TrEMBL record:
Catalytic activity: a myo-inositol phosphate + H2O = myo-inositol + phosphate
The protein's name in its UniProt record: Inositol-1-monophosphatase
Group of enzyme by EC: hydrolase
Keyword list, A-Z: Hydrolase, Magnesium, Metal-binding
EC number: 3.1.3.25
Similarity comment: Belongs to the inositol monophosphatase superfamily.
InterPro entries with a match to the protein in the record: IMPase, Inositol_monoP_metal-BS, Inositol_monophosphatase-like, Inositol_monophosphatase_CS, Inositol_monophosphatase_SuhB
PANTHER family reported in the protein's UniProt record: INOSITOL MONOPHOSPHATASE (PTHR20854), INOSITOL-1-MONOPHOSPHATASE-RELATED (PTHR20854:SF4)
Annotated Mg(2+) binding sites: 66, 83, 85-86, 210
Superkingdom of the source species: Bacteria
UniProt record, GO biological process: inositol metabolic process; phosphatidylinositol phosphate biosynthetic process; signal transduction
Gene Ontology MF term list: inositol monophosphate 1-phosphatase activity; metal ion binding
Cofactors named for this entry: Mg(2+)
Amino acid sequence: MNSTDLIEAAETAARLGAKCLLDWVDEFRVSEKGRSDLVTDADFASQTAIVKHISERFPDHHMLGEEGLTHAEGESDYRWVIDPLDGTSNYVHGFPYYCVSIGLEHEGELVLGVVYDPNRDEMFSAFRGQGALLNGKPINTSRIPSLDQAMVVASLPVSTTGQDVAVDRFLRVLPEAQTLQRTGSAALNLCYVSAGRMEGYWSSNLKPWDMAAGVLICREAGGVVTSIEDASFTIETPSILATNGTNIHSELQTLLAGPLF
């Protein structure tokens, strides 16, 4: 299938979803899927707009999305993996670090990723083997070589306690990195690694829609993506370590995968 058609459809869908997010600002209602795990009217409106556009273009394609979206009828080799609002807590609090994330798999392999940040009008995109782009211009990871010079970011689970393994890992890295942050959007974190704005990102609690698009973008920008524990990786498992591909990757993996507590 033509990569240009697929990318154009994904980017258009992402913009349609993002328009819903902006239209719903100050109008949405919030509910909880679990403690501190929020969902809004905007999530559902964005997902509806995205699915409608993609379904009209590719009616036989499968889909997987955060807000209860599962469509796997027929024999298509394509599956869209959609997060209509990555960074819902940020969105609810008016913190402008959230996005729409749309990935595409073909025969189980990631082939396309689009992440759109409506607050900065930044469209990150990649197609397998064609490099990564930001608003149509090529991007690459930084070449910072060591953790003590690096800015890195972590995700912590919702409802985190002080005894959580993720907190222990965060505290291990804190004195070793130049800067360590928690920002609230996995997809944007992966894109920021891709664009050289940070050097590493990890999480042990992601879903496929959180990372599908960002993983491909990161790899196409020259980054390295594995699990925290070893070299394996799949979007179906929650563990991810993404870096600029320098020695920072092994430094973080040693710190994160060692004996806990």
